[in-house]
Amino acid sequence: MKATKTLLLVLLVLLSGALTAQAQLSLSLTPSTRAGEQGTTVIFSGTLRNTGSDEVFLNATNYNLNAAGLSLDDSPFFANAPVSLLGGQEWSGNLFNVAISPATALGTYSGNFGILGGVNSQAQDFLTQASFEVTVQSSPPPPPSNVSGSIFLTGHDPDFHAFADGGNASSAKAINKAAINFVMDPAFNPFVASGVSKFLFIESKGSVPGGHTNGVNGIIASGYGLGTNFDHHDFTTLNAALNGLGTTYSAIVVASDFGGILRQAELDILNARSSDIITFLNAGGGLYAMAESNTGSGLTPNGGQFGYLPFVTTTTPLNQTEVGVTVTPFGASLGLTNADVNGNFTHLIFTGTFGLQVVDHDVSGNILTLAGRGPVGPGGVGTTIPEPSTCMLLVAGLLPLFGVVARRKA
After folding, report:
1. Among candidates 112, 124, 134, 24, which has minimal Cα distance to 65?
2. What φ, ψ does residue 292 adopt, rounded to 5°?
C-alpha cells in the first residue's frame, strides 16, 4: 500500500510539472496568415514566451497541414530556436516554412503548428500551438522580353518646388510625374507588370534647414499617396527597405539634397548598396534621382553624389534660375514641354551622358536632365549585359538575399 501511494505521488508530481510547462509557454505567429504564389515558399515567424517561473525545454514540433501541394518544413525552428527558455524569457524568429508546389490549387489553407517539450531535454509534452493560414495565389506572368533598367537623373529639385513653389509648382509636378511614369512603365519594368506598384522614396526625416523643405511633400503634391503609391525611408530603415527591391518596390526615388533634405547618412547607405541597386536595375527596376550637389545647407558634405551609379562621375554644382531651358525631342517624347522646365531653379549640370539621353539643357547648352534604358555596367547604361541568371532570380523575387544561420539543437 505504501509503495502504491509513493507511485501515485510520483505520477502526480510529474503530471503537475507537465501541466505547469504547458500552461506557461505561449506561441504567437506574426503574422499568422501568409500569401504566396504557386512554386514559391512562404516563411512564418513568431514569438515564444515563457510566462512562468520554471525553465521550459523546447524539444520538438507537432504540426498539421492537410493540403495537397503544400509542404511544411520545421527545420528553421531547430536551427534558430533556443534549447530552452527560462522563466520570463521570450524568443522571436523564423519557425517554419511552407513550400507551395506549382500545381497547388488556388485558395486559402489552414494548419496548426505546435511545440513539444517540458521539464527536461527528453520531455515530449504538448506545450502550445498556434493556427496559421496559407493563401495560394497564381504565379505572375513572365517578364517582358525587353527587360532593362530605367533611369531618370535631373539637376532640378522638383521635390521642393512642387510643394514649396518658389516659382512654378505645376512645372515641378510635371517633372516628377514624367520621371516616375518613365521608371515605372510596365512595358519595361517587369515588377510593375507583375503587380508591384509601390516605389521607395529616400529622404531624411530630420530637421529642415532654411531654403529646404521636406521633399516628400512635393511627391505627395504631385499626386502620389504615402503608404499607397510609395513608402518613405531615411537612414534608420533604409537598409531594410532596400532588401525589398523587386518584391515590395518596383522603383527607387531619391530626394534632392538642396531643396529636399537628402543627407549624407542616406547617401552613404545608397552608395554602399550600389551593387544591389545595379542588380535591381538590370532586372528591370527603375530609379529617379533629383539634384545632388551639396549646395544650399551642404547636407552631403562628404561627397559621393550619385555614387550608387558609379558611372556618373562628371557633375558640376551650379545653382541657376530656370530661364531659357529647352526640352529635347527625347524629353518631349516623355511628355515634357519647355514650360515644364522653366520658372524654378536647378542645382547642377551633367558633363557626360553615360549612355543616357539628354532630356533638357540650359540656355548655355549644359545638360540638366538625363534618362534612358538599358543594361547598367561600370561604364554606363548599355555597356555591359548582366548575366541572365541574375536577372531571372531578381525578377522571380528570389533576391534580395536572406539567410538562416544553421544551428543544431542539443
Report:
1. 112
2. -125, 105
> How many domains does the structure of the chain reveal?
2
Q: What Rg do the C-alpha atoms of the chain give, in angstroms?
A: 28
Which of 137, 158, 174 terminates a domain? The answer is 137
Which residue among 137, 168, 196 closes a domain? 137
Q: Which of 329, 401, 323 is nearest to 362 (CA)?
A: 323
Q: What is the pTM of this model?
A: 0.61
Residue 404 resides in a domain: no
User: Residue 184: helix, strand or coil by DSSP?
Assistant: coil
Task: Record the cell numbers describing residue 199, joined without a space.
Answer: 516605389
Looking at mean pLDDT, say which of 7-21, 111-125, 366-380 comes out highest.
111-125
pLDDT of residue 386: 38
Q: Are 150 and 373 in contact (CB under 8 A)?
A: yes
Query: Mean pLDDT across the chain, nearest whole number?
Result: 85
pLDDT digits (tens, 9 = 90+) for 207-229: 999 989 999 999 999 999 999 99
Eight-state DSSP code of residue 245: B
Mean pLDDT value across residues 60-69 = 91
The pLDDT confidence band at residue 399, using thresholds 50, 70 and 90, is very low
Range of the domain at 274: 149-395
Alpha-carbon gap, residue 249 to 285, rounded angstroms: 9
Do 157 and 223 reside in the same domain of the chain?
Answer: yes
- Nearby residues of 362 by Cβ (< 8 Å), 6 or more positions away: 320, 322, 324, 325, 346, 349, 368
Q: For 119-235, where are the E strands, in sequence order?
A: 125-137, 149-154, 198-202, 230-233
